[in-house]
From TrEMBL:
GO annotation, biological process: mitochondrial electron transport, NADH to ubiquinone
Name of protein: NADH-ubiquinone oxidoreductase 21.3 kDa subunit
Chief location bin: mitochondrion
Key words of the record: Membrane, Mitochondrion, Mitochondrion inner membrane, Transmembrane, Transmembrane helix
Entry keyword annotation includes Secreted: no
Domain of life: Eukaryota
Membrane topology designation: Multi-pass membrane protein
Length: 194
């Protein structure tokens, strides 16, 4: 085991598995109710369990298997990395494949879910992209990126020229001289740009 902040803290796999089973079981009951509502025959309120009850069972088992396996593998390996969600996804996908009743379905759904869940965790567990360091404030990170990409004013003026809100130091004096040479007009001393 590592020392300091990298030390692994065990998780209660049974508790997390039960909690996930309850949450996904409730989601499965909702989806089963929708399925029951959309059937052509009126099967009554108990159709949630009698006609489309396998949906509730599959959702309950998938959630529990995923969460329990993820926590148990983390406890056994004493590591919290992307392999744990992949293993949890393998068991959850296999539970989904059991509804089909064929070995290729069990293996295929298990492999697909393992790849998706492992990749999702590996890329930072976010649909918006990988977060490099969770300790750094996002605003501070963006400010630092802006500072790193700033171009010196001399280089900007060399590329774009002066005007349009971009003025080098001493612009007013150079402008007065150009107007005096070109038009013979004395411009009063006013420093609006410096």
């Amino acid at each position: 085991m590592a020392s300091g902040d990298d030390q692994y803290h065990p998780k209660d796999a049974v508790k997390e598995g039960v909690n996930a089973s309850l949450v996904t079981g409730a989601a499965g009951a909702f989806i089963s109710a929708v399925q029951n509502t959309l059937t052509k025959r009126n099967v009554g309120a108990w159709g949630i369990f009698t006609r489309t009850g396998s949906t509730v069972a599959v959702f309950t088992v998938m959630g529990g298997a995923y969460s329990f396996t993820k926590s148990a593998s983390a406890n056994l390996r004493e590591k919290d990395d992307s392999l744990n969600p992949a293993l949890g996804g393998l068991f959850a996908g296999a539970a989904m494949g059991l509804k089909r009743g064929t070995t290729p379905a069990v293996l295929g759904f298990g492999a697909l879910t393992a790849i998706v869940m492992g990749a999702y965790d590996y890329t930072g567990g976010s649909l918006t992209g990988y977060k490099k360091d969770k300790e750094i404030d996002e605003f501070e990170r963006k400010q630092q990126l802006r500072k790193n990409r700033r171009i010196p004013i001399d280089e900007t003026i060399a590329q774009l020229g002066e005007g349009r809100g971009i003025y080098a130091p001493g612009y007013d004096e150079r402008r007065k001289e150009r107007i005096k040479e070109s038009y013979g007009i004395d411009v009063p001393a006013k420093s609006s740009h410096s």
